[in-house]
């Protein structure tokens, strides 16, 4: 069985790697560590296909440690114990460099089993994860390791790997490959920053091409597009990228940028994540537009109901309308700020007895100093308003809501200022 091209063509040195210049260029921290010949415990964090495993293999060659590899999805504590048992034997005379892929799948007990050996220096750990290590790796392990973040590669960074892949296949298969610049660029763009995926596309493009009369093959952009169609987008509903996209989605609407908001909506929908788009859109309408345009709430709710009813791809149309409406609407968060302030008082114990006039009882006990409810029914008064105490005594004079500086709330402020001023005169 032939190994994938990404494994057959795995770089042997840092200079052969593409991307991650912030870590690997001359003078960068990780390159300096590699050149020092001494490895501390490391955690590599980043999306798939960005060079984490490749760099771990290269770093392993710079030490006299015995390389052992485990994968968090299938390894157990027993596997760790078996590796530890090799320490000091002919199998690992100078210690072990343990490369633990997908460490986020190790539970707390499994991760803790590594600590004793990390502290003693018997095991040097290089762990990789596609999830935020500060959420998925336990503090005791984090405190003994240094985290380096790997970033998705740009198409320009991926393209040299694609060209190297074609050159390797041309030599391996012994046939002339005529690859257009557009074809190589198309593969790089379709990879979504994943070199492994780009090399898979590269090999697939060669396998799918029909030989000419001389045995050579021509790789065109049109042929590549047919192979890579729909593969350029990468979205993990359960991973960090999910939360980054929905965060950017709401912040773009809040920031009144309809173009960015539509972009992040498209990413959610391309990933099939209709429920997240709907939830965040409704939250944003209430939280960020709110009282500046209160009519927006039933409009957005109707658009979301329609989207859920018709499903994708049709759902994109009412959602796009609603997103543009929210992004271009006047903004106010006075409602959110008001309820947050009120909740803070209640949760900290700052509340008191409800004023007698507002209580749901119509008689007083013997201990009441003044009998009677004395509630004033506002509709019996001019403008349907009368001054009376509503807040408990402990919060008398407390203000939670402050009118926003938008036209709608300022109109309400002017209305009530006039009425209350008239009543006091």
From TrEMBL:
<dbReference type="Pfam" id="PF16193">
    <property type="entry name" value="AAA_assoc_2"/>
</dbReference>
<dbReference type="GO" id="GO:0006261">
    <property type="term" value="P:DNA-templated DNA replication"/>
</dbReference>
<protein>
    <submittedName>
        <fullName>Replication-associated recombination protein A</fullName>
    </submittedName>
</protein>
<feature type="domain" description="AAA+ ATPase">
    <location>
        <begin position="38"/>
        <end position="154"/>
    </location>
</feature>
<dbReference type="GO" id="GO:0000731">
    <property type="term" value="P:DNA synthesis involved in DNA repair"/>
</dbReference>
<dbReference type="InterPro" id="IPR051314">
    <property type="entry name" value="AAA_ATPase_RarA/MGS1/WRNIP1"/>
</dbReference>
<comment type="similarity">
    <text>Belongs to the AAA ATPase family. RarA/MGS1/WRNIP1 subfamily.</text>
</comment>
<dbReference type="InterPro" id="IPR032423">
    <property type="entry name" value="AAA_assoc_2"/>
</dbReference>
<dbReference type="InterPro" id="IPR003593">
    <property type="entry name" value="AAA+_ATPase"/>
</dbReference>
<dbReference type="GO" id="GO:0017116">
    <property type="term" value="F:single-stranded DNA helicase activity"/>
</dbReference>
<dbReference type="GO" id="GO:0016887">
    <property type="term" value="F:ATP hydrolysis activity"/>
</dbReference>
<keyword id="KW-0067">ATP-binding</keyword>
<dbReference type="Pfam" id="PF00004">
    <property type="entry name" value="AAA"/>
</dbReference>
<dbReference type="GO" id="GO:0008047">
    <property type="term" value="F:enzyme activator activity"/>
</dbReference>
<dbReference type="InterPro" id="IPR027417">
    <property type="entry name" value="P-loop_NTPase"/>
</dbReference>
<dbReference type="InterPro" id="IPR008921">
    <property type="entry name" value="DNA_pol3_clamp-load_cplx_C"/>
</dbReference>
<dbReference type="Pfam" id="PF12002">
    <property type="entry name" value="MgsA_C"/>
</dbReference>
<dbReference type="GO" id="GO:0003677">
    <property type="term" value="F:DNA binding"/>
</dbReference>
<keyword id="KW-0547">Nucleotide-binding</keyword>
<dbReference type="GO" id="GO:0005524">
    <property type="term" value="F:ATP binding"/>
</dbReference>
<dbReference type="InterPro" id="IPR003959">
    <property type="entry name" value="ATPase_AAA_core"/>
</dbReference>
<dbReference type="InterPro" id="IPR021886">
    <property type="entry name" value="MgsA_C"/>
</dbReference>
């Amino acid at each position: 069985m032939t190994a994938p091209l990404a494994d057959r063509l795995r770089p042997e040195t840092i200079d052969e790697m593409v991307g991650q210049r912030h870590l690997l260029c001359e003078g960068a921290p990780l390159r300096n560590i590699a050149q020092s010949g001494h490895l501390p415990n490391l955690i590599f964090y980043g999306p798939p296909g960005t060079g984490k495993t490749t760099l771990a293999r290269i770093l392993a060659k710079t030490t006299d440690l015995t390389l052992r590899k485990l994968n968090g999805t299938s390894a157990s504590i027993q596997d760790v114990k078996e590796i530890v048992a090799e320490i000091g034997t002919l199998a690992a005379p100078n210690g072990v460099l343990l490369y633990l892929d997908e460490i986020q799948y190790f539970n707390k007990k499994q991760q803790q089993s590594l600590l004793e050996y990390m502290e003693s220096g018997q095991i040097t750990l290089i762990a990789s994860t596609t999830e935020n290590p500060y959420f998925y790796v336990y503090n005791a392990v984090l405190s003994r390791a240094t985290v380096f973040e790997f970033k998705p590669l740009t198409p320009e960074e991926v393209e040299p790997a694609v060209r190297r892949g074609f050159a390797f296949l041309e030599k391996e298969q012994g046939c002339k490959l005529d690859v257009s610049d557009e074809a190589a660029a198309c593969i790089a763009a379709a990879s979504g920053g994943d070199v492994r995926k780009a090399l898979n596309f590269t090999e697939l493009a060669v396998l799918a091409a029909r030989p000419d009369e001389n045995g050579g093959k021509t790789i065109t952009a049109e042929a590549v597009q047919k192979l890579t169609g729909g593969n350029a987008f990468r979205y993990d509903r359960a991973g960090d990228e999910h939360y980054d996209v929905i965060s950017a989605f709401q912040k773009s609407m809040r920031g009144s940028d309809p173009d960015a908001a539509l972009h992040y909506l498209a990413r959610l929908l391309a990933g099939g994540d209709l429920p997240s788009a709907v939830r965040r859109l409704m939250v944003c309408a209430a939280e960020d537009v709110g009282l500046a345009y209160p009519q927006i709430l039933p409009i957005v709710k109707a658009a979301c109901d329609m989207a859920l009813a018709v499903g994708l791809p049709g759902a994109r149309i009412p959602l796009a309308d609603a997103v543009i409406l929210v992004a271009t609407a006047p903004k106010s968060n006075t409602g959110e700020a008001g309820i947050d302030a009120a909740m803070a008082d209640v949760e900290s114990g700052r509340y008191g007895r409800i004023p007698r006039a507002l209580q749901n009882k119509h008689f007083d006990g013997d201990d009441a100093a003044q009998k009677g409810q004395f509630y004033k029914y506002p509709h019996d008064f001019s403008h349907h308003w009368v001054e009376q105490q509503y807040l408990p005594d402990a919060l008398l004079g407390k203000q939670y809501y402050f009118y926003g500086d938008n036209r709608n709330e300022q109109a309400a402020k002017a209305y009530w200022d006039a009425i209350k001023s008239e009543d006091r005169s």
